[in-house]
Amino acid sequence: MFLAVNFAIASVPIRVTSFMAFWNINLDTISLINIVLCGGISLDFSAQISHVFISSSELSVDQITEALYLVGYPVLQNATSTVTDVCVFSEARASIFRTFFKTMCLVISFGVPHSLICIPIFFIFLFFWKVCLNIHSQIKNQL
């Protein structure tokens, strides 16, 4: 389970750094601080979804659906409010604020799909893998 969260945390700053190079944003102190913030925000999104899975005793498809139902909407609200709050910086003349705006928009656009799509898909694969192992062990015990 921690593999999916680690993947989401690591891939978001890597993608943000790639897009920063595409947008000709220099890697200075301000942009590196923003990249560190990326890890924290992507951790927040991933941890909210993963906490529901880890806190229960058994993994099932119904539990995955329930987790998305319970936590998916607050994650979307968090992302929407973050983008809304940061939109003020889009019209600033100082590059520090524009860099922060671009970085935060990238973090939201990469972090939310990771937490709402990639992590639940990983947990579905994990569930079916456990089911297949149980079936295999039952067949092996019958022989």
Explained architecture:
- It is a single chain.
- Helix content is 85%, strand content 0%.
- It is mostly helical and 143 residues long.
- The chain has one domain (2-142): Multidrug efflux transporter AcrB transmembrane domain (Multidrug efflux transporter AcrB transmembrane fold).
- Helix 3 (61-86) packs antiparallel against helix 4 (95-142).
- It is elongated, with a radius of gyration of 19 Å.
- It starts with a helix and ends with a helix.
- The model has no long low-confidence stretch (mean pLDDT 83).
- The chain crosses the membrane at residues 103-129.
- InterPro entries: Patched_domain-protein (IPR051697).
- Keywords: Membrane, Transmembrane, Transmembrane helix.
Name some characteristics of this structure:
single chain; 143 residues; mainly alpha; Multidrug efflux transporter AcrB transmembrane fold; elongated; transmembrane helix; transmembrane
How is the secondary structure organized here?
Elements: H1 2-22, H2 29-55, H3 61-86, H4 95-142
Helix pairs in contact: 1-2, 1-4, 2-3, 2-4, 3-4
InterPro entries: Patched_domain-protein
Keywords: Membrane, Transmembrane, Transmembrane helix
Transmembrane segments: 103-129
> Structural class of the helices, strands and pairings?
mainly alpha
Number of strands: 0
The helical percent reads over 70%
CATH class: Mainly Alpha
Low-confidence stretches: none
Summarize the main sheet: none
C-alpha-based Rg, rounded: 19 Å
Q: For the record, give the distance between the C-alpha atoms at the N and C termini, rounded to a whole number.
A: 32 Å
CATH T-level topology: Multidrug efflux transporter AcrB transmembrane fold
State the CATH superfamily name: Multidrug efflux transporter AcrB transmembrane domain
Element pattern in H and E: HHHH
Based on the coordinates given, report the CATH architecture: Up-down Bundle
- The geometry reads as elongated
Compute the average pLDDT: 83
